[in-house]
Structures are given as structure tokens and as C-alpha cells.
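Hello,

Our lab assistant flagged a job as stuck in the queue for most of the afternoon. It eventually completed. Since we weren't sure the result was trustworthy after the delay, we are filing this so someone can double-check. Below is the sequence as submitted and the structure that was eventually returned. Let us know if re-running is recommended.
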Amino acid sequence: MLPTLPADHTDTSNIQMRHTEQVNVEPKPLDLLTLIDETASNWQIHRCQLIEASISQTRPMQLIYHYEALPDATKAQYPLQGQLLKRFDEAISREDFATGLGIAVQDVPQAWQLKFTGKLVLYHTQPDVALRLHWTNTLKDFVPIYQADLATAVAQSFAHWQWIGMVEMVNRDRAWQLVGATTHDAAEHHAADGRQGVWQLAVDTQFSVLPPVLADAVKQSLQADDVSAHWVAAMQDAAQSYADNFIATQQIAAC
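-- returned structure --
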């Protein structure tokens, strides 16, 4: 059944006025850092994805790592001195270290050398916004973990995890315009900025990159919050899934 059209005498001025008012409502400014600080527990994980991963036990490491992993009795018997001492920060294989120290390679503990990087998307419902961040378990080429069990090593490798790189955000809430204080230069280079020194993000369907100063403040706030433990667990799960596949592949190759 077709809808009934209004009669000629129907007064539509109020209807039109209300519609115009709704369309032209100005979004309210909402400080991004305040939003994050006050609603940290309300942010949920949309996706945690592993981008790059490296698992090894054969890469060269700084000589001092090999030495510090030795039992105390071995270190007392073979003090680090002479040419080896001069090379303490040189990357060296486990085999070369054992030869240089004069011990069997089996007496040198073998570390899992782990590096994981990925991205995490967090979302908030009221207001309807989302953040996309990038993370790593270590800022170094890898972190050595001395554990026989790879799963335990993966979990321990996130002890000093960090946010890295850019931070992106999308605002899907017409009622709010996200703002954040930043440097003048950063503000000038952001297309959405209409006020000196203030970054602004209106409603959109695409992620936008935050200015560096504001991105650093967001990462610092999210790193410090206790709620981040839930996000780290998601990172560890993504890394662990990769590690499980790594072990399965190694077992197949050994058959």
C-alpha cells in the first residue's frame, strides 16, 4: 500500500524546519585524550592481526647474551676476558661463542629469538569511534628468551611490548567532532584542521592518521592504562597462533 500524501492544506513548515535543524546541528567538540582517559575500560577489541613474525634459535646474538646465560659455575670457570671481553657487544653465533670460550656448544643455553609486530583495532560505541594502532613485542631485532617451551617463551617475550608507528582513527558519530591539542606544524599539515594548533576529526568512513604529537600522547595513555593487559593478551594470542604453526611446520619437516 502506497503512503498517503499530505493534503494540500497540510502545514509542512514545522516538519521541514525540524529536518533542517537536524541536518544542520553542529557537532560538539570532544577532546580525544580526555575520551581515552575517562573511558579506557569501554574500548573493545575489533581485530588483532599479526603482520610480521620471526622465530629462530640460530641467529647471531651479542656475545654478552650468550655469556650471561651460562650457569654461574661455568662463568666462574671461564671468566669473560681477553679478546672475548673486547667483543662483548659483537653479534656472534652460539657455536662460535662456544669455540671462543673453549666449551662444548651443548653447554651454551639456546634461546628462542622472537620478534612479533602487528596491528590492533579498538572501538568505542558512544561515541562511535575506532582506533587503529601498531604494536611490537620488542623494539630490538628480536628478544632472546631462555625457555624450553616455545609457548612460555612467546608469553614472556611481551614483557616490554610497545606501541609503534602511526595511530589512525575514524569517527562515525555525527554528534561529535574529535579534537586534540598538537604542535602548530602538525596542525598545519592536517587537512581537517581549521584552528591553529588544534587537530580536528569530523565524521567520516575512513581512518585518518593522527598528527605525530597527538599520536604519541595516545600511545602513552594507552600503554599506561591497566586495561591494556587485555590488549596484550590478544597480541600474545596472535603470536601464539603463529608459533603453533611454526612448531607444526617444524615437526612435518622433521618427518
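-- support follow-up --
The delay was a queue issue, not a problem with the job. The result is valid. The chain has two domains: 27-57+114-254, 58-110. Residues 137 and 161 are 4 Å apart (CA to CA).
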